[in-house]
Write a structure and sequence with these properties.
Number of domains: 1
Oligomer: single chain
CATH topology: TIM Barrel
CATH class: Alpha Beta
Keywords: Hydrolase
GO molecular function, one term: hydrolase activity
Pfam families: TatD_DNase
Protein name: TatD family hydrolase
Bound molecules: zinc ion
Number of helices: 11
CATH superfamily: Metal-dependent hydrolases
Strand content: 5-15%
Helix content: 40-55%
InterPro entries: Metal_Hydrolase, TatD-like
Order of helices and strands: EHHEHEHHEHEHEHEHEHH
Shape: globular
Strand order of the largest sheet: 1-2-3-4-5-6-7-8
CATH architecture: Alpha-Beta Barrel
Number of strands: 8
Length: 318
């Protein structure tokens, strides 16, 4: 299909989960869905396609509830967005909770104005990056302590070595270690962002000692890594990528880690599950991903759904 004809509209709602089956979207960015869909709308109008209506957070939660997705952990991982995630949780008590961290790609920017980016590319330096990393992390710490009922995890933290030079990798590893220490100090679960950094992330966790509940967000590892995860009692959170054709290694990892250690997420607005890859993702899309997980494990969808719900309760206390 040519780019010109690409469909930018919202994907249809999946079939609702069976009556009485409720799940939580364990990692999402609902506020970011709004500008993402606005961009889809702009592109659609440019090409003479139907407009793509805005769906605010209330609408996203309503659509999600209609298919059995009754809660979400909203992730704030840039300094100016931390408070927004907490506010969403305050506005939707018992439905939305927050995870907070300074994302690995953000961590390398804080306090490093003028330093060269990976591969000589200019860094996307913004005004808030003038604030040193230590102070940004202190804000994560402060909000987590001030809102213990809302903030249920530290994340997403970890390492992202996609196009990242050696200097940035060193900064990321230090920032990751600081987040590990903070999660353990606060007694909170940790959500890990690991992009092209499986060995480095595992090595750092083993060296420093992982928090009691350590979750690989949008898990992208292979079977060897899944065996380490199983051995250590860590958790996988699966996004729409589990449904992509080329990701057989993710599907095989599910069976290795086992039904008691897997959860489900959107990472909206990105990583939309099949058959709607490329559209705007939002929490209502979760059942498509559960369907892919169920098929990979060859068990009914409600069995996977209920297992993820139990695990979310055990890990996050929600
Ligand atoms: Zn994310």
């Amino acid at each position: 299909m040519s780019r010109h004809h690409r469909n930018r509209s919202w994907a249809p709602s999946p079939e609702p989960l069976p009556e009485g089956t409720e799940v939580v979207d364990d990692h999402t960015h609902m506020a970011s869905v709004v500008p993402f869909a606005a961009e889809m709308d702009r592109q659609a109008r440019d090409r003479g396609q139907d407009p793509v209506p805005v769906r605010d957070v209330d609408r996203q939660l309503e659509d999600a509830r209609a298919v059995g997705v009754t809660g979400a952990i909203d992730v704030g991982c840039e300094l100016p967005n931390l408070r927004r995630a907490v506010d969403l949780a305050l506005e939707h008590p018992g439905v939305v909770h927050a995870a907070l961290a300074i994302h690995p790609n953000e961590a390398v920017l804080h306090g490093h104005r003028g330093s060269p980016g990976p591969d000589g590319l200019p860094l996307d330096y913004r005004p808030w990056h003038d604030i040193p990393f230590e102070d940004a992390l202190a804000e994560v710490d402060r909000l987590a302590r001030s809102f213990p009922d809302q903030v249920v995890a530290i994340g997403e933290t970890g390492m992202d070595l996609f196009r990242t030079g050696a200097a940035s990798a060193g900064l990321q590893r230090q920032a990751f270690r600081d987040h590990i220490r903070l999660a353990k100090e606060l007694g909170l679960p940790m959500q890990i962002h690991d992009r092209d950094a499986h060995a480095e992330v595992v090595e750092t966790l083993l060296a420093d000692g992982a928090p009691e509940f350590t979750v690989f967000h949008s898990y992208s590892g292979d079977e060897a890594m899944a065996r380490v995860v199983a051995e250590q009692g860590w958790y996988l959170s699966l996004s729409g990528t589990v449904s992509y054709k080329g990701n057989e290694q993710i599907r095989r990892s599910l069976a290795i880690v086992g039904l008691d250690h897997i959860m489900v997420e959107t990472d909206a607005p990105y990583l939309t599950p099949m058959p709607y890859r490329g559209r705007t993702n939002a929490p209502y899309m979760i059942p498509y991903t559960l369907r892919a997980m169920a098929d990979a494990l060859d068990i009914p969808i409600q069995e996977v759904a209920r297992a993820t719900r139990r695990t979310t309760e055990r890990v996050y206390g929600i």
